[in-house]
Amino acid sequence: MASVLTNLEAKGLIRREPSPVHAKVQIASPTDEGQAALDRAYQEVIILERSLTAAFTPAERASLGELLERTTAVLVEQTPGTHTRRTGPGTAGDRDPTADPVMPSDRSPAELSPAERCSTGRRRTARQGDA
User: What is the pTM of this model?
Assistant: First the structure.
C-alpha cells in the first residue's frame, strides 16, 4: 500500500498529512488533480454499468444486485483481517434493490458524498501506517 500511495503522490494525485491522533498514521486525500481523475473515472464506471445492465429488467437488476451483495459478503467473511461490512444510509445495505444500480448523471461526482461516490460505502480517504 505504501508504494501505491508513493506513486500516486509522485503523480500529484494525492497528498499525505500526519494524523492528528496517531503518530504512525498518515491521512491520504486527493489533490484537485486527483479528484478530477476520480470524477472522470466515476463517469466511465457509470457508462460501463449502464451498458452492462441495459438489457436487464428492473427485477433482473435487483436479482443481480442481491447476488453481488451475497458474493461480497462471502468474500468479506473469508478474507482475514477485514471488518464487518457497513450498513446504513448511503451504503449498499441501504439501497433500493429495484432502483437503477448507478447514480443519476444529473449530479457531478464532486456533489456526491464519499459514500455515494464509492459503491461499497468505504471512505475515499486512505490511512497508511508502518506497512
Answer: 0.49
What would the pLDDT profile of 18-29 be if each residue is shown by its tens digit?
A: 999 998 899 999
Pinpoint the alpha helices (H) of the chain: 2-10, 32-53, 58-78, 114-117
In this structure, which topology does domain 2-128 adopt according to CATH?
Arc Repressor Mutant, subunit A (1.10.10)
Task: List the chain domain ranges.
Answer: 2-128
